[in-house]
Amino acid sequence: MILKILIENTKRESSELIAEHGLSILVDTGRTKFIFDCGHTGAAFDNAKFLGVDLRGINFAVLSHSHYDHAGGFVRLLDFAPIETIYTGENFWEEKFSRTEDGFKYRGCGFDEKFLSARGIEQKICRDVLELEENCWLVGNFKRRYNFETIPKKFVRGEKKLPDDFSDEIILVLRGRKGLTIVTACAHSGILNIVADVKARFSAPIHTVIGGFHLTGAKPERILCTIDELKILGVKKILPCHCSGEEFTKNFSDRILTGSIIVLE
After folding, report:
1. Of 7, 30, 193, 264, which is the most exposed, with the fewest CB atoms less than 10 Å away?
2. How many angstroms separate the Cα of 146 from the Cα of each of 10, 119, 189, 192, 194?
3. CATH code of the domain covering residue 183
4. Residue 29 domain boundaries
């Protein structure tokens, strides 16, 4: 199984690829290719073209949650790939906002159900565990086990601007020879909550965790505790990117950048 990072916050200095605050990954299971998240602007798919990646055979995409930096680029994906289906979590259409000093700023995906309907695109919803194919699943509805993994109060949803519980968040789980790989886009639900929940549901060792850990600005004690707990949970390899934060990411020698290729074990 191969993951190609089509866009991420960072890139090599000499790279001609585009980097932006967001995440988009091309997943190749050996049987199927699909897009996991679309970044913010759709520049991910310009990168794909630059990298020689042909998206014309891809007919579905997974949107981990409806924040702009993960789902906003979906509209441009349709210029590159014949998407027939998107997979989301529950409550994907509840509009996203962040609380600011001046009020609220819209942070949603920028399209709605009518947009999908007009283009004949089907939405499939992952509520708990949804098998995409053998050894490949989507997972959502995470049990909260770690009280210190709280969601910042700035994140709100819906017309009433209620605290966002990120019930729309889903992640990808892949089974390889050495165990499970978890691919998480932002881990708003808490990276430890997610990893512990996957371990409990699948009753299998977790070898690798890849993606955004949402630890930007986290205090040192929170970062150290997270690393220790991931080790206790049996995780062997950690590949953070996007919203993981430099203070967390610097603890690991392997860095994910725009254009990185990851071969799963």
Report:
1. 30
2. 30, 41, 10, 7, 10
3. 3.60.15.10
4. 2-263
